[in-house]
């Protein structure tokens, strides 16, 4: 029966700890798709994540744009109370939109300058219809643009600062010319720009070394270093629009002020900690003595021109940009790392999230409540106290954070016990949220036993006696990547090793298996358990008391996920695609002809007896019938890290866009 499915068969010799056996590998070709659904998937949340830059429409202070770290440009018509996704400028989701300009002469013209985090490239995108369509400027293609400015007295004059230098346009961005010295060893890596409000030929530029100034449009440059600590990265430059001789700049060494158009600076005292970096300076449009300083450790504010600064937020807030409503300076918005947009109605005295519609979350765990399909849980990484775990009670329409007790831990796995308790596998161990409670509790005690051998003399003969004794307990501190609590014996896959618990997490037993840790995935079928690390799979037939190596196909080079189906077949998601074995590694079959090979996640839909597969390298997901080898395939529009079934609907998790909601499965019958 199995052989009839083979296109080819390869006999591989594998060695276990106790015997030699044969592993048969076959290729299974899936049938033609039974459906190809094109129903749009929708971003659900949780709201928040990284926000980078603001821009407002001249004359319409409530009409705002927001840049992200995932290529998305957001728009709001109500001063940031609600946002919607306007445009994605790059399909890699890796553009950091750090600079946005709305043309002061034509509000329908938008400029977005961007750079790519892991590469030294980027570019400039321009729209002439309010963001409905975009074109990249080819002259600046590949330039990692770190700053941008428009001349207040001449809207056609624009400047951008890149890793290469400073470029100028005199025709509203159609053509560009390098105005800093070519291949300069000084004026490059330009992080900030500011133009004199009255003279477009006067330009200030901050580099990763020191600030510079030109008064003739770039023909000559002067280093502004008097009073500034050497080798200071200049993040932001601010020119007082009513008094152009007053210039502020922020650097890694602090905040500086000049009252001589940059000839001499003095360091402003008042913001503590030399390690604190001020990323942005923003002047109150109505009161120029009021300046906000957005730092890597909170927001500060001065109302006396920098003589004294007062902290306005906690030091856990990383501020990337500040917006002050020119009609009401009590309305202040912050673009932050992890926390998204924060809004104040009292001039910065207090803030609350204003992220409706903004979703830039890396969701690594996704769970549907075992009794209520409208209740969802998601686990987020990289957002510290702004992330952790979230829950939705309305099928993903809205989300609430449930992070009390997580203490900023990332959440990599979520599971639910039979009594409704929620478990989280985190950066540092396992935490449990009892049903009906609001605070997570650690469950990290490892209490193993040791065999004590003693020798006694019985009738003149030395006799060895073995006795099990408690070993010193330790606390699990490593990352927990997966959990399975579907049976009375719970199991956790961690960087420390494999752990089991027979008392609902009160204590754990186990550790490295055959000398190895770094286990990524675990699945349970009755008394049988299987666990995977990148290069191997191990199994247990006695609920984790003993583990054995599983014979594996040589073709597998990187394993990501294991999952059992109802009949005990073990499915493996790997770099090379999907493999499965009905007999714990004696026989393997490989599913051929998937639209993607690098399978990051597998899940089992017990209601429909289907295997769900997804890959971060693709926006497609599969639902496979293991009996007939027929399948359904959906395009989501998003690279999918995880896919689950919520009642009769598919839901997914992404690395950049949070949770996404798919079509109903009934519509696909």
Task: Write a structural description.
It is a single chain. This protein has 669 residues and is mainly β. 0% of the residues lie in helices and 49% in strands. It contains no helices and 65 strands. A 6-stranded mixed sheet has the order 1-2-58-57-56-55, with no helix packed on it. The protein has a 5-stranded mixed sheet with strand order 3-62-61-60-59, with no helix packed on it. A 4-stranded antiparallel sheet has the order 4-65-64-63, with no helix packed on it. Strand 7 (60-68) and strand 8 (72-76) form a beta hairpin. The chain is elongated, with a radius of gyration of 30 Å. Mean pLDDT is 91; it is low at 1-24 and 32-37.
Feature tags:
single chain; 669 residues; mainly beta; 6-stranded mixed beta sheet; 5-stranded mixed beta sheet; 49% strand; disordered N terminus
Strand percentage = over 45%
Could you tell me the number of beta strands?
Answer: 65
Give the integer mean of the pLDDT values.
91
Q: Which stretches are poorly predicted, pLDDT < 50 over at least 5 residues? A: 1-24, 32-37
How far is the first residue's CA from the last residue's CA?
29 Å
Shape: elongated
Share of helix among residues? Answer: under 10%
Main sheet overview: 6 strands, mixed
What's the helix count? 0
Structural class: mainly beta
| Radius of gyration over C-alpha positions, nearest whole angstrom | 30 Å
Strand order of the largest sheet: 1-2-58-57-56-55
């Amino acid at each position: 029966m199995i052989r009839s499915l083979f296109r080819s068969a390869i006999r591989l010799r594998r060695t276990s700890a106790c015997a030699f056996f044969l592993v048969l590998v076959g290729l299974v070709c899936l049938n033609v798709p039974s459906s190809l659904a094109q129903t749009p998937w929708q971003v659900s949340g949780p709201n928040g994540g990284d926000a980078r830059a603001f821009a407002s429409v001249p004359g319409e202070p409530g009409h705002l744009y927001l840049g992200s770290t995932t290529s998305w440009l957001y728009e709001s018509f109500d001063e940031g109370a609600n946002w919607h996704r306007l445009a994605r400028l790059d399909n890699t989701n890796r553009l950091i939109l750090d600079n946005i300009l709305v043309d002061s002469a034509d509000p329908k013209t938008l400029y977005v300058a961007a750079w790519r985090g892991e590469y030294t490239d980027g570019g400039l995108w321009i729209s002439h219809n309010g963001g409905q369509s975009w074109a990249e400027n080819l002259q600046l293609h590949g330039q990692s643009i770190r700053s941008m400015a428009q001349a207040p007295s001449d809207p056609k004059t624009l400047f951008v600062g890149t890793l290469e230098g400073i470029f100028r346009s005199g025709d509203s961005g159609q053509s560009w010319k390098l105005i800093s010295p070519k291949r300069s060893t000084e004026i490059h890596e330009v992080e900030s720009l500011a133009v004199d409000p009255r003279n477009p030929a006067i330009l200030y530029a901050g580099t990763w070394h020191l600030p510079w100034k030109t008064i003739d449009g770039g023909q000559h440059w002067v280093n502004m270093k008097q009073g500034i600590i050497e080798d200071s990265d200049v993040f932001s430059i601010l020119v007082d629009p009513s008094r152009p001789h007053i210039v502020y700049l922020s650097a890694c060494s602090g905040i500086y002020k000049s009252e001589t158009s940059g000839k001499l600076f003095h360091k402003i005292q008042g913001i503590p900690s030399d390690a604190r970096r001020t990323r942005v300076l923003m002047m109150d449009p109505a009161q120029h003595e009021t300046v906000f300083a957005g730092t890597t450790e909170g927001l500060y504010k001065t109302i006396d021109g920098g003589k004294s600064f007062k902290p306005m937020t906690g030091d856990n807030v990383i501020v990337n940009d500040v917006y002050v409503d020119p009609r009401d300076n009590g309305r202040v918005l912050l673009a932050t790392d992890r926390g998204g947009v924060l809004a104040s109605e009292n001039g910065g005295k207090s803030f609350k999230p204003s992220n409706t519609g903004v979703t830039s979350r890396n969701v690594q765990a996704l769970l549907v409540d075992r009794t209520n399909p409208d209740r969802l849980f998601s686990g987020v990484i990289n957002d510290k106290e702004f992330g952790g775990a979230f829950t939705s009670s309305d099928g993903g329409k809205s989300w609430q954070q449930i992070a009390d007790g997580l203490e900023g831990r990332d959440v990599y796995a979520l599971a639910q016990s039979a009594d409704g308790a929620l478990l989280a596998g985190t950066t540092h161990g396992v935490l449990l949220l009892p049903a009906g409670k609001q605070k997570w509790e650690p469950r990290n005690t490892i209490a193993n036993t040791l065999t004590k051998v003693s020798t006694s003399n019985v009738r003149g003969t030395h006799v060895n006696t073995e006795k099990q004794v408690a070993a010193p307990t330790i606390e699990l501190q490593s990352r927990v990547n997966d959990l399975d609590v579907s049976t009375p014996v719970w199991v956790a896959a961690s960087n420390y090793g494999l752990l089991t618990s027979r008392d609902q997490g009160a204590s754990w037993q186990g550790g490295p298996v055959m000398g190895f840790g770094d286990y990524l995935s675990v699945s349970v079928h009755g008394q049988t358990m299987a666990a995977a690390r990148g290069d191997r799979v191990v199994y247990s037939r006695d609920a984790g008391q003993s583990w054995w190596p599983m014979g594996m196909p040589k073709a597998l080079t990187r394993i990501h996920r294991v999952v059992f189906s109802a009949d005990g077949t073990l499915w493996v998601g790997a770099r090379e695609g999907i493999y499965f074995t009905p007999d714990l590694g004696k026989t393997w079959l490989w599913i051929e002809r998937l639209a993607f090979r690098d399978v990051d996640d597998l899940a089992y839909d017990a209601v429909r007896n289907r295997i769900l597969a997804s890959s971060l390298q693709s926006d497609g997901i599969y639902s496979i019938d293991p009996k007939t080898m027929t399948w359904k395939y959906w395009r989501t529009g998003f690279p999918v890290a995880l896919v689950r079934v919520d009642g009769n609907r598919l839901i997914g998790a992404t690395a950049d866009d949070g949770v996404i909601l798919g079509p109903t499965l009934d519509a696909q019958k």
